[in-house]
Amino acid sequence: MFGRNHESPIADRWIERGGTPSYSHIRLNKAMRPQRLKLFRNGLAILVLLAVPAISASELKQETLNAWDDYLRTANLHMHRNLGTGDPFLWIEEKPGRSQRVRQGEILISPAREASLQKVHDGLIHDWIGAVFIPCVGINDVFAVVHDYNRYKDFYKPTVIESKLVSRTGEDYEFSLVGLKSVLFEKIVLEGQFESHCAQLDGRHLYCISYSTRVQEIKDYGQPDSHKLRTDEGHGYIWRLYSLTKFEERDGGVYIEVEAIALSRDISALLHWFTKLVVEHVSRASMSTILQRTREAVRSNIAARNRKNPKTCNFLQGDSSR
Q1: Domains, the chain
Q2: Residue 239 class from Cβ within 10 Å (0-12 exposed, 13-18 middle, 19+ buried)?
Q3: Helix 33-51 crosses helix 272-306 at what angle (to 10 degrees)?
Q4: Each residue's pLDDT tens digit, 93-134
Q5: 230 or 279, which is more confident?
Q6: How far apart are CA 182 and CA 104, in angstroms?
Q7: What is the DSSP string of 221-263?
C-alpha cells in the first residue's frame, strides 16, 4: 500500500530514553436493570479497591521495567507490521463490519491482544485499542487538536488539569500533562513528561508514537505543602504509558485509531479475577472518553473557525462504545 520497505525509525526511541457474585442469582426488574447493574458494578469496584492496599506506597522494580520493555518490543513488531507490508492500515479493517460500525458513529473499543491484562513481575500491562470516525473533516483539522497540547486541559478536563507544550522540532513534540485520578476518597495526581513523534506515509495516512519519559506522583496537589514523590514511587496506578495513533483520511472524514499500553502496579493474586472485571470496565470507559472528547474538540474547533454549527456538515450525534 505504501511501499513494502517502509520502516519506522521512531518506533523504538523509548528504548534509547531508558527505556462478582454469580449473576445467575440476581433477579432484577427489567425497568431498573441498567441502574441496578451499575450500582452493583460500582459496589464491586469499591469492595475490590478496599481489599487491595491501594493507599500503600509502591516502587517500580527493575524486573518489572524489563518486562515492560520486552512487551513493547513485541508489541511494536505487531503494531508496525501493517505500516508498509500491504496489510490493512487500520485494525478496524482486519475484520468485516468494524469499519461500517465506526463510520456510522460507534466508538469501537477492544483489547489489543488476546488478553487486555498481561501480568508481569510485580506489575500489570494494560493494552487496549479504540477507533472513532469524524466525518466532514481533514487530517489537518484533526491535527489542529491533537497537537494543541496547551489546550489538552480544556479538551480532556477534568482528567487533565494542566498541560503544556514544552518543545517542537519538526514533527517531534515534547509536552507535559498533570492528570487527576480519583480512587475512593483519595485523589491521585500524576505529572508526566511525554514525547510524540509523527510520520506521514502519504497525503492520507499518518501515525504518531507517544510515550512517557517521566511519571511522578504529586502529593497533596494544590496544597501549600504539595510536593512530588521520587520517580517510580507512589501508588503505582500508572508507571509508564505508550501509544500508537493512526490517522486515515477517506470516506469524507478521518478515522482515528489508538492503541494505548500502560504499566501499573500488580494486585493481589487472590483478587485478580474480581479486579480484572473492574479494571477492564474502567479502561474501556477511559478509552471511549478520550476518543469522544477528541471528536468533540475537532468539531468545536471547526465550528468556531467557520462560525457555523457542525450539524450543517452532517456530523453524527450518536456515540456508543462496545
Answers
A1: 32-321 (3.30.530.20)
A2: buried
A3: 120
A4: 999 999 999 999 999 999 998 777 888 998 999 999 999 999
A5: 230
A6: 33
A7: TTSTT-EEPPTTEES-S-SEEEEEEEEEEETTEEEEEEEEEEE
